[in-house]
Amino acid sequence: MRALRFILSSILLIAVAVVTVYGCGVAWQSLIVSLGGADRSNDRQPTEAVALSSLPQYTQKVAGKAWFRRYFARMVFDDGNGAGSYTGILTRWDKQRVRIDILNSGGPGMHRYVVMLVRRLNRMQQAVTFVVVDGRAEVTIEYLSHDAYRRTIGDDNTVGNCATRFYQGPPGLISAVIKVDAGVEATSVDRKATIVHELTHALGFSGHFRKRSDQRRSVLYYASTLTNWSQADAAAIRIMYSSSMRNGMNVHGVDRALRRFAAGRR
Ligand SMILES: [Zn+2]
User: Fold this and answer.
1) pLDDT band at 62, cuts 50/70/90?
2) 163 CB-near residues (< 8 Å, 6+ apart)
3) How far is the CA of 64 from the centre of ligand 1 (A)?
4) Which of 37, 107, 109, 222 is the most exposed place for a label (fewest CB within 10 A)?
5) What is the rounded distance in angstroms from the CA atom of residue 209 to the CA atom of residue 213?
6) Ligand 1 centre from 209 Cα, in Å?
7) Which tens digits make up the pLDDT trace of 91-116?
8) Which domains are delineated in the chain?
9) C-alpha 249 to ligand 1 mean position (Å)
10) In the prediction, which pLDDT does 37 show?
11) pLDDT: is 40 or 208 the higher one?
């Protein structure tokens, strides 16, 4: 009995030790600067928007390109120590079903928007089925007033945040908590841009693009205003949830895995 208790408490200790929490926000100051305070609808669509019918061929083609390997690494690895840093390890969902609960209303059209994103996610990749549920879920989305957001997240000039809990290795991600500053993000189109950015973090992508030229290339531009994934984002999601990638890989392991994927060796 004592041995059993020891084993159980050891397992618990290991579990606690490997779980980490981080947050990734969309910066609001730069967002206002980039839009000049106005909503230019051009800035809402990626240069090459996701096209699901051609995604498998596109993914196979770009996986072998050097630019895409850099793009993928930039999406996967944390850039918290600067634009050239690739810290952390690959972390993704190993579960077959990941539930998303929208805790409160984000305003007109927002529920439908999340359902649409989830439908797209399920067509981009086949490893995980994402479902929107009402109740117990691995991923939650909550819209907060400006004061409540500041109290929860702190004064870090963000309008959205995704805090994840994960193991550094299988089973990877175990929960993601998305919060949106609905006070600053007053319009539904602003909230959509924040949701697709934070939801992409919730898939295990921890990095950001910081060059202005990447503004319309990826929803993970640090001050993104895009409301749709780019075809390259979708290819990254497809590869992330392919059998080539594994929880716990570092930046070199990911690069090797991408080359194997491109060569058709899974
Ligand atoms: Zn972010």
Assistant:
1) very high
2) 21, 22, 23, 176, 177, 179
3) 26
4) 37
5) 9
6) 9
7) 999 999 999 999 999 999 999 999 99
8) 20-262 (3.40.390.10)
9) 21
10) 44
11) 208
Average pLDDT over all residues of the chain: 89
Q: What pLDDT, on the 0 to 100 scale, is given for residue 32?
A: 47
- For ligand 1, the distance from its centroid to the CA atom of residue 10, given in whole angstroms, is 34
For residue 98, how far is its CA from the centre of ligand 1 (angstroms)? 21
Written as six digits, the tokens of 98 are 């990941």
Looking up tokens 């990941």 gives: 98
Cα 223 to ligand 1 centroid, rounded to whole Å: 8
CA of 222 to the centre of ligand 1 (A): 6
Q: What's CA 152's distance to the chain center, in Å?
A: 20
Q: Give 263 Cα–ligand 1 centroid separation in angstroms.
A: 31
Q: Can you give the pTM of this predicted structure?
A: 0.89
Pairing of strands 20-22, 158-166: antiparallel
pLDDT at position 2: 56
Rounded to the nearest whole angstrom, what is the distance from the C-alpha of residue 126 to the centroid of ligand 1? 25
> Of residues 8 and 81, which shows the higher confidence score?
81
- What is the CA(197)–ligand 1 centre distance, in A? 6
C-alpha 3 to ligand 1 mean position (Å): 44
Q: How many A from CA of 125 to the centre of ligand 1? A: 22
- pLDDT tier, 266 (very low <50, low <70, confident <90, very high otherwise): low
Residues in the chain: 266
For residues 142 and 103, the answer to whether their CB atoms sit within 8 Å is: yes
